[in-house]
Design a protein that fits this description.
CATH architecture: 4-Layer Sandwich
Largest sheet: 8 strands, mixed
Number of helices: 5
Number of domains: 1
Keywords: Signal
Strand content: 25-35%
Structural class: alpha/beta
Number of strands: 14
Radius of gyration: 20 Å
Oligomer: single chain
Pfam families: Lactamase_B_3
Strand order of the largest sheet: 6-7-8-9-10-11-14-12
Protein name: MBL fold metallo-hydrolase
Length: about 270
């Protein structure tokens, strides 16, 4: 009997070994897929309030314009996405992320007060990888390719930056030019809020972008990178007969928390483009 119990324990240890030895960094690189909340309870809607009103477990997200957002955490960390010389927040962010596509997505002269300038590409086209913590914010990235002006491919020219704070995962798709693979989707894991370029021409076409968003299964989609109202409405038409709700806000700032994530996937339109 003792030999049988010993054998069972050894077998169980063998089954658990891969999980026990998995490095912690492997989990830090992704936001695991979790249920946002009970489908039977309607959560409160994201609050359109200034970031000064942030409470624990909340994140502020403000649309500055084009593809630039200002993310603010309870701990006071500020991030400007696709930081450039044309659309900048009023504050100097602690972190600035950039993408290669063109000058409305990066700056050659970032403000010297920025502590971390994170370029989503390398000049030699080799991969760039971020896995870093700044205060109460974690930042990672997934690289994708972009087209050049002649129709060729620039490998690793774009980064999807992922920001995790207050148990929320926010993904900025950058200047995405192609569909995501199953491997890409697995690496991204659970994304609660996705910031998506919806112009349908300079980035991925509208049908392709809608496919990407539906595969990500994020509770909140926020359109960006559109040049006029007609472009935005063309994108929104794809969700008119789907399970997605559409909500238009009067304020460019949202205060988000896990408790406020909608149980029905929702496209939230913030003023500006």
């Amino acid at each position: 009997m003792t030999r049988f119990v010993t054998a069972c324990l050894l077998a169980l240890a063998g089954l658990l070994a891969p999980f026990a030895t998995a490095p912690a960094s492997a989990q830090a690189e992704r936001c695991p897929k979790l249920v946002a909340g009970s489908p039977f309870l309607a959560p409160p809607e994201p609050r359109a309030l200034p970031a000064a009103y942030l409470q624990p477990r909340e994140v502020s997200l403000s649309y500055i314009g084009h593809s630039t957002f200002l993310i603010e955490t309870v701990g006071g960390v500020t991030v400007a996405t696709d930081y450039n010389d044309y659309a900048r927040p009023d504050v100097v962010p602690r972190v600035a992320t950039m993408n290669r596509a063109h000058l409305t997505h990066y700056s050659l002269n970032p403000d010297p007060g920025i502590e971390y300038v994170l370029k989503g590409w390398r000049e030699d086209r080799d991969p760039v990888h971020y896995d870093m913590e700044v205060g109460d914010l974690w930042i990672g990235n997934l690289q994708t390719n972009i087209r050049d002006w002649e129709g060729g491919t620039i490998r690793n020219g774009n980064s999807i930056f992922v920001f995790r704070a207050a148990d929320l995962c926010i993904a900025h798709l950058g200047h995405l030019h192609h569909l995501l693979t199953e491997q890409d989707l697995g690496a991204l894991g659970r994304i609660d809020v996705v910031l998506a370029p919806v112009d349908g021409s300079y980035t991925l076409d509208v049908d392709g972008m809608v496919e990407v968003l539906k595969k990500l299964e994020s509770p909140v989609v926020i359109p960006m990178h559109y040049f006029n109202q007609a472009t935005l409405e063309r994108f929104l038409e794809h969700f008119a007969s789907s399970k997605y709700a559409i909500r238009r806000e009067n304020s460019p700032t949202l205060v988000l928390s896990r408790a406020s994530l909608p149980t029905q996937p929702t496209v939230i339109v913030l003023p500006g483009h």
